[in-house]
Structure formats: C-alpha cells, structure tokens
UniProtKB/TrEMBL annotation:
Belongs to the SEC8 family. This is Exocyst complex component Sec8. Residues 1-21 are annotated as: Disordered. It comes from the Eukaryota. It comes from Anhinga anhinga (Anhinga). Keywords: Coiled coil, Exocytosis, Protein transport, Transport. InterPro entries: Sec8/EXOC4, Sec8_exocyst_N, Sec8_M. Residues 273-323 form the Exocyst complex component Sec8 middle helical bundle domain.
Length: 338
C-alpha cells in the first residue's frame, strides 16, 4: 500500500508539475533506466499497476457519481457531431449546386447574348422593311403632292427616299427600278420648280398689277374727267426682296436674318400653296436648295431674264391698249370723243 501510495503520489506530483501526460512516461523510463536489478524494476512495475488500478477505481466512482451529466454530455456531443457532419454535407452540396449554377449561368449568358443580337438584327430588318414599304408609296404620294403643288413636302419626300435607296437600301435588288425612277424624278424636279418660280416671279406678279389696273379702269369709267384718275401705284406690291427685308424678319442687309426667314418658311398642306405668292416663292427656293440646284436656278433666271421681261412689256402693252380702247368706247357712248 505504501508503494502504491508513493507511486500514486509520484504520479500526481508529476502531473501537477507538467500538464503534458508524457512527463509521467519519461519519469518512469528514467527510474527504470537507473535501477540496477530486475527486482527494482518489478517493484516499479507493481507500483505503476497499483496506481493505474486506483485511477480506474476512482474513474469508475466518478462515472457512477456523474452518470447523468456524463450521459447528457455524450448525447449532446453526439448531437453536435451529427449536426456538424450534416452541415458539412449540406455545405458540400451547396458548393456543388453553386458550381452547377455558375456553369448554367455561363450558358444562359451566351444564349441571352445570342438572342439579344438576333433581336437587334430582327429590329433592323423590320425597320428596313417598314422603310421599303414607305418608299414604295413614294411615287403615288409624290404625284399627289405635285398635283396639289405642295412642292416642299414633295421635295423632302423625294430627297429622303433617294438617299435611303442609294444608302442603306442600296443592296436591295428588288428596288432597282424604283431607284432609277425616283433618281430620274429628282434630277428633273428642279425644272418644275424653276418653271413655277418664273410663273410667279414674272406672270402672277404682273397679273396682280393688271387686276388693279382694271379696277381703276372701272372706277375711271364712272368719272367724267379721265385725267383725274391717278397713275398706277406699284410701290406697295410685295416682292421677294421686300419680303426678306421687312422688319419682322430682320434689318435690310442682314444675311443671317435672311437665311433665318427662309428657314422659318413652312408649308401648310391644308391651305392653298399659291395663296401667298411671296411665301410660295420662298418655298420653291427652299425646295431648290434641298435639291442642291441653286446654281442651276440662278443660271436659268439669268438666261430667261431678257425673254421674260420682253413678255412682261408685251403683256403690259396689250393690257394698256385694251384698257385704252375700252375707255374710248365708254367715252364715245357718252358723246365725249376726247
């Protein structure tokens, strides 16, 4: 018993000195190595066995005393272990699912990009088809605009259609005939506009003077003394130069304001385009500018200037002669040969 007590005491003292359990083993090995004979070794062995048996008994007693707490601790430990194991498995499964989702998302992204590109292509094709459908209706609409003398709308429509046919729709073989037709109309459009410009510039403006002259002639027929009739006043006639130089559009000589006044001219499809001759001539000039035919227009006006002025003199002479003859007839009927 004394030997067992000493061994147990030595064991406890060794454990208290060092928390490492290997310290006891080292102490035992040192004791055995310093002993001289087998009897001392056997004695040491017996002491160790007794110490271990006492530890086992003490352990059994402690287990019996704390059985409930130990059982609860073991069960809790098992539950915690199971939960940790389940969590690890779930985390592993989540990782696998995430990798799978990542692969699927890569595939979906490529598919979505492909669909997006196809959507853009289809949208572009639909826009081209709509443009083709609108351009096919251009000849009919152009004919209507030309018949109603809405030349600015006709010019915009024609220029836009030709630009599209010679630009984005150049590779469409089915539009070759329409392309040639509209291009030919665009090349000859300025001739129509120049003729209209000359008609308003030389003929319609002088017709207004003739109308005023006729009105004054009717007034003079009611007056006994024809010499009291005032001379024809043409200072208030509206001309393109006066239209551009009026105060509402800017000061005379201001080129920037003249350009602005021309840009502000718009065509109302609901009204008669020739109602205001000055605005109509501005519309014609704007259409010629869009056709880029201003140099040809200036040349045509210069070439036809002398001829047109001679025609004005001829028409005016005829009107004056007719009015004079009519006035003479009226006076002769009143027995006034003068």
């Amino acid at each position: 018993k004394m030997a067992a007590g000493e061994a147990a005491g030595r064991y406890r003292s060794t454990m208290s000195k060092s928390k490492d359990p290997s310290g006891l083993l080292i102490s035992v090995i040192r004791t055995l190595s310093t002993s001289d004979d087998v009897e001392d070794r056997e004695t040491e062995k017996g002491r160790l066995e007794e110490a271990y048996e006492k530890c086992d008994r003490d352990l059994d007693e402690l287990i019996v005393q704390h059985y409930t707490e130990l059982t609860t601790a073991i069960r809790t430990y098992q539950s915690i272990t199971e939960r940790i194991t389940n969590s690890r498995n779930k985390i592993k499964q989540v990782k696998e699912n995430l990798l799978s989702c990542k692969m699927l998302l890569h595939c979906k992204r490529d598919e979505l990009r492909k669909l997006w590109i196809e959507g853009i292509e289809h949208k572009h094709v639909l826009n081209l088809l709509d443009e083709i459908e609108n351009i096919k209706q251009v000849p009919q609409k152009l004919e209507q605009c030309m018949a109603s003398k809405h030349y600015l709308n006709a010019t915009d429509m024609l220029v836009s259609a030709v630009d599209s046919l010679e630009g984005p729709l150049l590779q469409v073989e089915g539009l070759s005939d329409l392309r040639l037709e509209l291009h030919s109309k665009k090349m000859n459009m300025h001739l129509v506009l120049i003729d209209e410009l000359h008609r308003h510039l030389y003929i319609k403006s002088t017709n207004r003077v003739g109308q005023r002259n006729k009105e004054k002639g009717r007034i003079s027929s009611l007056v006994k003394d024809a010499s009291s009739v005032p001379l024809m006043d043409v200072t208030n006639l509206s001309t393109p130069r006066k239209f551009l130089e009026t105060s509402q559009f800017g000061t005379p000589g201001s080129s920037s304001m003249r350009e602005t006044s021309l840009l502000e001219i718009k065509e109302d499809v609901e009204l008669d385009p020739e109602e205001n001759s000055t605005v109509f001539m501005g519309i014609l000039i704007k259409g010629l500018a869009k056709l880029k035919k201003i140099p040809e227009t200036v040349k045509a006006i210069q070439d036809r200037l002398e001829q047109e002025l001679k025609q004005i003199v001829k028409r005016s002479t005829t009107q004056v002669a007719d009015n004079g003859y009519q006035r003479g007839e009226n006076l002769s009927q009143e027995n006034q040969p003068r």
